[in-house]
Design a protein that fits this description.
Lyase, Ornithine Decarboxylase, Chain A, domain 1, 11 helices, single chain, 2 domains, eight-stranded parallel barrel, binds ligand LLP, TIM Barrel, globular, alpha/beta, 423 residues
């Protein structure tokens, strides 16, 4: 099953079902973007619920049509919002959590504990205890110290704990250094050479049920070759009943960007497992970004426009709601929500007190004016999750849209919320 494309006038970066109406106004999930901005204020994360569901279904179909025994996990760090957990739990996938906080969020979002997989390169005693207490299905052991810590906490009376060992296959995909994890010189997992001893130790502990190895070589990967090479690299560690392949599929952030389809991604990963490990292996995959990124757009309002050497279009959000341009040099596109098209070269910037607060450098807006609603697509992954209160800016709400109905699933932060932890 492939993901349907948005309305023909809009590129593949927009949420499924998006369109520009007869008056030239953007609609997301059947809702008018200008009305949404008026009703819920800006900045706001606007999610097309159908898009989330369609991509979850596409991932499940792509993997399960190629391998009888598969499990898809939502890498929830990408969008750890209770309502998103809820939708994806309803779609029948499992969930990857990377901390105690994500673990309780996933439970609150409705995931059954046995569908949770706990990750993390520095899990604390407390996080391991929480996972065991909540009967989390699987723990991915990240190294020797953690294994020791886990072994100390295991209760002999319980069924053996399902575990994987995370390995770094020494395969580097082409992506930003900050999100590359498959290289040997990494803080994640254990090197291939160190894995056999730890695997033996895990096999020898009857309170552990060693299911296989886990790897995650990096994120926003647009070439599928490294995924195949990584499977080949870990195949040398021997045969296991399961393999967890991590996530990593890149998404298109701008209309001129092409990325492999979900289907191509599944074909590459499953094909490599079949080639190097046979077809009798349960395959687990952990998409984060490619599951949620394109489901969401951010709406902003233009506060001020300055013309000096460049034209600076300043909006009411910025690096507090989207850190990705500043952290990874990520490119986005921006449009006036009721006046698509270019004409005015400008930089779309935020309201934060530093010059790195540029959301889209070298944008082209159609005659931008103060009060315009500006939209940036593809903000569903790692926007909400890395949002912050720099300059005391309250974090934006999350609004779900479907069939013309909009509902707030996370309210806007208030100034009072900024003092909620004061004692
Ligand atoms: N599994 C594990 C163990 C991971 O660490 C990650 C992401 C994923 C799965 C999901 O990867 P994805 O399918 O999303 O590529 N903040 C960065 C991304 C950090 C990714 C961290 N790990 C960004 O905004 O680009």
């Amino acid at each position: 099953m492939s993901v349907p494309t948005p309305h023909s006038e809009l590129s593949h970066v927009w949420p499924i079902g998006s369109e520009i109406d007869g008056a030239g106004r953007l609609r997301i999930g059947g809702c008018d973007a200008i009305e949404l901005a008026r009703e819920f204020g800006t900045p706001a994360y606007i999610v097309a619920e159908d898009d989330l569901r369609a991509r979850a279904q596409a991932f499940v179909a792509a993997f399960s049509s190629r391998n009888a025994d598969c499990e898809l996990l939502f890498a929830s760090k990408a969008f750890p919002c209770t309502a998103v957990y809820r939708v994806l739990a309803e779609e029948g996938i499992g969930c990857d959590v990377a901390s105690g906080g994500e673990l309780v969020s996933a439970l609150r979002g409705g995931f059954a504990p046995e569908r949770l997989v706990l990750h993390g390169n520095a899990k604390s005693e407390a996080e391991l205890a929480l996972a065991l207490r909540e009967h989390v299905g699987t723990i991915v052991v990240d190294g020797a110290d953690e294994l020791e810590r886990l072994e100390r906490q295991l209760d002999g009376g319980k069924a053996p704990q399902r575990v994987f060992l995370r390995v770094t296959p020494n395969v580097r995909g082409e992506t930003h250094d900050g999100i590359s994890t498959g290289q040997a010189d990494s803080k994640f997992g254990v090197e291939l050479a160190d894995a056999p001893a730890l695997l033996d130790r895990m096999r020898g502990n009857d309170r552990l049920d060693l299911r296989g190895v886990h790897m995650h070589i990096g994120s926003q990967l647009r070439d599928l070759t490294p995924f195949r090479r990584a499977v080949e690299a870990v195949a040398g560690l021997g045969a296991f009943p399961e393999i967890d392949l991590g996530g990593g599929l890149g998404v298109a952030y701008t209309s001129d960007m092409d990325v492999p389809s979900i289907d191509d991604y599944a074909a590459a990963k499953v094909g490599a497992v079949h080639e190097h490990l046979g077809s009798d292996v349960r395959i687990i995959d952990e998409p984060g970004r490619a599951l949620v990124a394109n489901s969401c757009v951010t709406l902003y309002t233009v506060e001020t426009i300055k013309r000096n050497v460049s034209t600076w279009v300043a909006v009411d959000g910025g690096m507090s709601d989207n850190m990705r341009p500043m952290l990874y040099g990520a490119r986005y596109e921006a449009h006036v929500a009721d006046r698509f098209g270019g004409g005015t070269p400008c930089h779309v910037v935020g309201k934060h007190c530093e010059s790195s607060d540029v959301i889209v450098r070298d944008a082209e807006l159609a005659d931008p004016r103060v009060g315009d609603v500006v939209v940036t697509p593809v903000t569903g992954a790692y926007g909400f999750s890395m949002a912050n209160n720099y300059n005391g800016i309250p974090r934006p709400p999350v609004v779900f849209c479907r069939d013309g109905d909009a509902r707030v699933v996370v309210r806007r932060e208030t100034h009072d919320d900024l003092f909620a932890r004061d004692v």
